[in-house]
Amino acid sequence: MTTDEHLTWKQIRERFPQQWVLLVDHDRLPHDIAGFKTARVMAVGNSRAEAKERARPQLDSIRDWGCHFTGPLRGPLFGYRPWFIP
Questions:
Q1: CA distance 69 to 47
Q2: Residue 58 lies in a domain
Q3: Lesser CB count within 10 Å: N end or C end of the chain?
Q4: How far is residue 53's CA from residue 1's CA, in Å, rounded to a whole number?
Q5: Which of 39, 55, 33 is nearest to 5 (CA)?
Q6: 13 in any annotated domain
Q7: Is 75 among the domain residues?
């Protein structure tokens, strides 16, 4: 599966709820290396491994990609420290 259209994170979450999405062609936010305005969905799966497997062999030729879960975060956020805790 490859989507040629660039989608926002909100649109991606609406189209692929509770799925792992492999994203490419990120339109990055200025001053935020992890954030993006839009991206293109290359593959979708029920697990990270499934999404990555569906993206092969195209994935081997792409340098900048990310695999993200569109559902709610579960478990601890390691390294997270709220700004209001001294």
A1: 9
A2: yes
A3: C
A4: 11
A5: 39
A6: yes
A7: no
